[in-house]
């Protein structure tokens, strides 16, 4: 969304060293069997978050994935036997790949990632009910998977989630992208995709889409937000104003609605800075004179498991 459905690429470029609590120092080695469930486009964003890609070029080559995931798991203290990778993508594999099973989903720009979400959640439930493995590695940032992940954990499975080094800065992530932070907080362990592991992965194509002028893109975002706000009934405006006065987070349904609207209007999933521009200007529009930038607000407490 790239919010697997609507995410991402460019975002913060610095890593402050405030890592996720459950990814800090792994004192216990864990072993067992594992299934990996991979949102292909989100993995592509993790690999190159500063590059805008589209179509088949946004999807990594599936045959490079199993070995890279094995390496990332070992770095996290998880000596797991990855039996299979379920590969959720709207781009068909050009040939069979050992230990990779294709799950064909719709382009996330067309359905907000719903087919991907349903397919991945159903697979998590089936694996948990069958006790087929002891571990799952989930490669997604979709907070809507929280219920499926929680049920799998209650069934006795350990559920781990893939991040990159910047995603390990949990304090900043909780401020910039609280929905992804809530999903990561549910994980038994966060598995960091190190630079060396990323180098082992490749994209199906190497042609990146040109990066838009940030000022032009910001103006387009502001125009779409103003159009959305002008269309909102007065009663909904008042309800949203009251909600944002007591919470930093834009309601999930509003956030997703705007991400989908803007991605369709701009012709690509919103990048990290574009999402930040969107959310800050939503607050500015809704709160008016009551708006206070994040830099002037007290910090949120970190999320715990």
**Fraction of residues in β-strands:** 5-15%
CATH topology of the largest domain: Rossmann fold
The CATH architecture of the largest domain comes to 3-Layer(aba) Sandwich
Number of helices: 12
Task: Compute the CA-based radius of gyration.
Answer: 19 Å
The low-confidence parts are: 4-27, 205-211, 294-305
- Overall body shape: globular
Helix-strand category: alpha/beta
Work out the number of β strands: 6
Q: Please summarize the sheet with the most strands.
A: 6 strands, parallel
The span between the termini is: 23 Å
Structure description:
By secondary structure, the chain is of the alpha/beta class. It is built from twelve helices and six strands. α5 links the parallel β4 and β5. The protein is globular, with a radius of gyration of 19 Å. The C terminus is likely disordered.
Task: Present the secondary structure layout.
Blueprint: E1 30-39, H1 40-47, H2 65-75, E2 78-89, E3 100-104, H3 108-111, H4 114-130, E4 135-139, H5 146-154, E5 158-163, H6 170-176, H7 178-185, E6 189-192, H8 195-199, H9 214-231, H10 234-245, H11 252-266, H12 272-287
How would you describe this structure in keywords?
305 residues, alpha/beta, Rossmann fold, 2 domains, 6 strands, globular, disordered C terminus
